[in-house]
Specification:
Keywords: Membrane, Transmembrane, Transmembrane helix. By secondary structure, this protein is mostly helical. The protein is 75% helix and 0% strand.
């Protein structure tokens, strides 16, 4: 028991350090950018293309803020605008697929995946889903009625306070990471040592096989689905080291999770916007499953081509 605790704690500390080196500087930079004209300039830049997604020009503001910061910041920006139910739903779908891009994509790169692949998948899903929803859904023209949400925010006085708050937020981000990752690693270590992890992976085997992955990716999938991409990356890093998760399975797992992660939290936080959240959850799950199965199928066919060529040479 003591060895399990020690091993799990060490793995948690090491993972926190690995991811913290990414999360702290990016959070710090983005927090500072909030108090410059940069984000407003980016919103102005993409305003002309908003009509393609069925959105008004001002909807560019929550889209930029949500992608640079997180879902909470994007939702706070939505609450400050007068939008239709359809516009709010489209924004919710887009931000579900594509939010907190800098941190979550950098974490994906830290795990060993190509940054451009993650960005292409997330931004591509956001764009395509918005266009489809806009074309398919003819309703939602009434103005959105927002629920009660606190908008209290500390307004810093001068750059010294701004830098102080940025450092505080970055530090709290790493602390939050440690509070989630370290206990999680300890629990996983206990499950491994007790042999329960093998039982769990067998139970999850039909799901992972359906998605084109091996059984040993089950913990990676569950971690990402429940606690999110950034925090779930800790489990992924550990899985690569200890469970011999292949590069292919890791890529497929991440493709699934960029489309559908932290499903409970990311769905519930949209409730105050007054939109139907169950269709939002269904869209994320269906898209994640279909996308992963499609890519896994294509991957298998590509892998099979050299084998057929080798067989023909031998004959």
């Amino acid at each position: 028991m003591g060895n399990s605790l020690k091993s799990g704690f060490q793995a948690g500390i090491q993972t926190t350090w690995t991811l913290g080196k990414v999360i702290f500087p990016i959070t710090l930079i983005v927090c500072l950018l909030q108090h410059t004209p940069v984000l407003d300039w980016l919103a102005t830049l993409i305003t002309p293309i908003m009509g393609i997604f069925g959105l008004s020009g001002e909807a560019a503001i929550p889209l930029v803020i949500g992608n640079f910061l997180n879902l909470y910041a994007g939702i706070a920006a939505i609450l400050s605008l007068d939008l239709t139910v359809k516009e709010v739903f489209i924004l919710a779908v887009m931000l579900s697929f594509s939010h907190n891009l800098l941190i979550e994509s950098s974490v994906a790169a830290k795990v060993g995946l190509k940054l451009w692949v993650i960005l292409f998948v997330r931004i591509g899903l956001a764009f395509v889903s918005a266009i489809v929803v806009n074309l398919v859904w003819q309703g939602g023209g009434e103005m959105a009625q927002y629920g009660f949400v606190s908008k209290t925010e500390v307004v810093p006085n001068g750059w010294l306070e701004i830098i102080g708050l940025a450092i505080q937020k970055a530090g709290l981000g790493v602390l939050q990471l440690a509070l989630i990752v370290i206990p999680l690693m300890i629990v996983i270590q206990f499950l491994k040592d007790l042999g329960l992890l093998t039982v769990f992976t067998k139970w999850m085997a039909p799901v992972t096989r359906m998605l084109g992955m091996k059984e040993n990716t089950s913990m990676t999938l569950v971690a990402g689905l429940t606690i999110g991409l950034a925090y779930g990356a800790g489990v992924m890093i550990q899985a690569v080291k200890e469970d011999n998760v292949s590069r292919k399975d890791l890529t497929l797992a991440f493709i699934f999770l960029v489309a559908c992660h932290a499903v409970v939290e990311d769905t519930l936080i949209f409730i105050p916007l007054g939109i139907p959240v169950l269709p939002l959850l269904a869209i994320r799950l269906v898209v994640a499953i279909l996308l992963t199965i499609t890519i896994a199928t294509i991957w298998r066919k590509v892998e099979a081509v050299p084998s057929r060529k080798e067989a023909s040479y031998e004959n």
